Amino acid sequence: MRGVNLTVNAGQKLGIAGESGCGKSTLALALLRLLPAGTRVTGEILLDGEDVLTMKWGRVRAVRWAGASIVFQGAMHSLNAVHRVGEQIAEPILLHRKATPTGARKKTGELLEQVGLPAARASAYPHELSGGQRQRVMIAMALACDPRLVIADEPTTALDVMIQAQILRLIQQLVSEQELGLMMISHDLAVLSDTCDRLAVMYAGRVVEEGPARQVYEDARHPYGQALSAAFPRIGDAGSRFAPRGLPGDPPDPAVLPSGCTFHPRCAVALDSCAAEDQALRSAEEDRRAACVHVGPVAVADEARSTP
Ligand SMILES: Nc1ncnc2c1ncn2[C@@H]1O[C@H](COP(=O)(O)OP(=O)(O)OP(=O)(O)O)[C@@H](O)[C@H]1O
Ligand code: SF4
Ligand SMILES: [Mg+2]
């Protein structure tokens, strides 16, 4: 990954979108120093002004859960099968909040109710819960120590649309009630544009577009953002339903990136210069940024949009 520069304020929801393999989960793991040993991370990761990258390990352990928590991709499968879910939610409360066992049990019950499960379900084993209920347990766990930032990596991908809608509503409600910052990762642009305030689109390990979520979804400035958005069929638009517009080709191998703008081999509006010149994120208009030669003072994004 290169040159990622993003901010999430308290009470704000930032969505991260992009095709499989573009680096979304890597970004999430980097934020809490969860990448495998030997990974090199440079720059700054500021959590309330404190740089996670230079923290001592003791401080990193304290910040995980209590400062920022993460709902991992496929999290509902990562609960421990031989422990009751209540014990698993209580564990970080006992460790980080130094709560008494009675206090931790009470807080666990409250958290379960907050995510729409009866407190009594604390005594269930993971296999006794449905997928959606397990996902709620994971969200309850992420909220257990009242973190300032919650990172949710594909929190609803494995769920049916009804449960997905419930979980998304719940997340939105918790963010606004508790003034959390939320970073939500998904390749579903439509979900992100409905749920999030801002949206960042990643390609080949870089943010190529960022701005207000609905604007980025409905009127992307970067050709990749436009292609990603066009790939989603719109309700009521028969054209998109019967002939969905995909994006030919595959994202590049991060170890062998194309020269210049890494999107150029797949870009329908590439110029000759794109194979040689990389483009930095630049102001697309007020409050929006995109990394494309067509964006900027001489914006010709309309030309790109009209290309099939
Ligand atoms: N531990 C690792 N060692 C080496 N390469 C890795 C490792 N983890 C991920 N990668 C590579 O980094 C790239 C980004 O992976 P990442 O998991 O961040 O993608 P993603 O955007 O989350 O994709 P998805 O939507 O499929 O979850 C991929 O090319 C992947 O193969
Ligand atoms: S810089 Fe060139 S190749 Fe890259 S997205 Fe813009 S037009 Fe396409
Ligand atoms: Mg991922």
Q: Can you tell me the CATH superfamily of one domain? A: P-loop containing nucleotide triphosphate hydrolases
- Top-tier CATH class of one domain: Alpha Beta
CATH fold name of one domain, please?
Rossmann fold
The set of bound ligands, ions and cofactors reads: adenosine-5'-triphosphate, iron/sulfur cluster, magnesium ion
Task: Tell me the overall shape.
Answer: globular
How would you spell out the order of helices and strands? EHEEHEHHHEHEHEEHHHEEH
List unreliable stretches of 5+ residues.
298-308
How much helix, percentage-wise, in residues? 25-40%
Radius of gyration from the alpha-carbon trace, in angstroms: 21 Å
Beta-strand content estimate: 5-15%
Q: Quick one: biggest sheet?
A: 8 strands, mixed
Span between N and C termini?
A: 29 Å
The CATH level-2 architecture of one domain is identified as 3-Layer(aba) Sandwich
| Mean pLDDT level | 87
Number of strands: 10
The helix/strand class is alpha/beta
The strands making up the biggest β-sheet line up spatially as: 4-5-6-1-7-8-10-9
Instruction: Specify the number of helices.
Output: 11
Structure description:
The protein has eleven helices and ten strands. With 308 residues, it is of the alpha/beta class. The protein has a domain of 210 residues: P-loop containing nucleotide triphosphate hydrolases (Rossmann fold, 3-Layer(aba) Sandwich), CATH 3.40.50.300. The strands form two sheets. An eight-stranded mixed beta sheet has the order 4-5-6-1-7-8-10-9, with helices on both faces. α6 links the parallel β5 and β6. α3 runs parallel beside α5, α4 packs across α5 and α5 runs parallel beside α6. The radius of gyration is 21 Å and the shape is globular. It starts with 12 loop residues before the first strand and ends with a helix. The structure holds adenosine-5'-triphosphate, iron/sulfur cluster and magnesium ion.
